[in-house]
Amino acid sequence: MTSLKFVVRMALRELRASWRRLLLFFVCIALGVGGIVLLRSVVQEVRRTIAGDARALLAADVVLSTGRPWDPATREAVEQRLSSPMVLERTESLETNTMVRPGNDRPVARMAEVQGVSPGFPLYGRVELEGGQAYSHALLENHGALVRPELLVQLEVAVGDTILIGEERFTVRGVVLVEPGTSMGAFSFGSRVLVDAATLEGAGLAGAGSRVNRQILLRVRPGGFDRFVSGLRDALGNRFVRVRSYKGTEERVGADLARAENYLSLVGLVMVILGGIGVSSVTRVFVRQKIRSIAVLKCLGATTRQIIAAYLAQAVLLGIAGCALGLILAWAAMRSLPRLLGDLLPAGGWTARLTPSAAVQGVAIGLLVALLFSLVPLLDVRRVKPSLLLRDTGEGSGGRDWVRWAALAALVAALVGIASWQAASLRVGLAVSGGLAAVTLVLQAAGAALVRLLRPLASSRHVALRHAVLRLTRPGNQTRAVLLAVGLGTFFIVGVQSLQANLLREFSLAIDTTAADMFLIDVQPGQAAGVTAFLRERSGGASVPPPVPVLRARVVGVQGRAINLESYEDVRGRGSLAREYTVTWRDRLEANERVVKGTFWSGGGGSDGEVSIEQSLHERFRIDVG
Questions:
Q1: Cα torsion through 228, 231, 235, 237, rounded to 10
Q2: For a designed S-S bond to 190, which of 111, 364, 381, 396 qualifies (C-beta 3.0 to 4.6 A apart)?
Q3: How many C-beta neighbours within 10 Å does residue 604 have?
Q4: Which H helix or E strand runs over 4?
């Protein structure tokens, strides 16, 4: 008890007397901890905000979807599963892409994504209408429709006017601003139109040959959710029915953000390591300044263990204070993000708060760094002898110090563990630690070489230069530590900038200057000449490419053998060849095309219905020339 009381009293006394000299120690820990906590909190909050709306992204807990009409056997299997007490609520919808025209017979039409919904839609989220109008399914009854604002402009219609979908007339009863069930960033063929599902079925757009996606949306009890979804997938896996759950959306969003979080956490870890180098340097200087005080304490009966424990306690107290300041800095930065970043943050549900897991990780790493990086220089206390008070030297022999090597090994192991923890991967943690170790060795060697190269300048006639070199080359100086910190900092900044540039280059579209900036799709034959003339007038002298004819078609057979689309097993194999392909026709090759097998036709083409296919189809489905 007496020994513990001595350690605590000495640590507090030294802290009061030397806090100015240890201020850098405190700041290094604070900045490192603040960086880790802020980076992790931002990413975790973005993940919570986006993934927390996963149900609204699907408009349900579970969605069953198929691109085929519900055949009796499949419908029976679905109904059998949905009779479970796990299902609390359900509704159905169907979607198709079709042309929408104004009801006043004006010669204009636009492609639209028409969704027919049933009462109860959406199960999660809400449909927001322009002007604060409340949504209810009654708006869609009796041939009502809700449309996106851009479609009103394109068709030159207003709320209350009629539009034609198929052969049915619908009255525009509202303008949709926000709608659940729409995927973020998904490609769209046109503006969204909401109508009643039964009315859409009667419009003749969901019959044989139509491209219709049918969905059953479910609200499910939380208990046993995963088992229920797994059972649905097992029962319907071979029936062309896709089963999606909101957890899948959460996982997809979460996986991408988790990678970003781990990467940014490694950035924060490097900040902490740089702070740790500062901690080690400050501690080494502090011990050298306290050598005579340590010798006095040993003369008065204090043991080496007690003195090291007192200084370690002081380092821990400074680490705790630094962690507290780091949390305050991270909180202040988090509070300022909405004002600084504005629209870059998620629109709804963003909370400027530090997440508990980020705070715990930051504090734990900060305390470990404070303890481990201060331990190695504190081991010099063992070499201080009481005889130092009588002579100028009081250090022990310079033989191998196994305790110091053990402390260094513990420091390296801890850094590997922390890096692996932050990266959520032992392989990445080892790679990062190995890279830092290699850079450290190179910088240490460079520091030693620099000191050796500077020594001849110590005899220079210039007083300022001579004293500068002597200060840099004297024993016990911090030249190598400063070079290491500056070198690692420079390496870190250049490395992050290079990685950012490489990632941007890797994920960019890599389009050259001749690539198109805009595509005009669905230009009808009677519109081609007018569109071309319109573009020429506004092109500023630039060339206008000719229209490219395209259509969508399926492969129905190869070598006289029909492709079976009714068997799930056949579709999983060669039947996937029967998906829709984009087909065009011309008598020439473009500059970016070349024939790898066979001969391309010329002039008007052959009389036997010749076609050319992409190399990928040839390799995947073994379709050869002839």
A1: 100
A2: 111
A3: 7
A4: helix 2-18
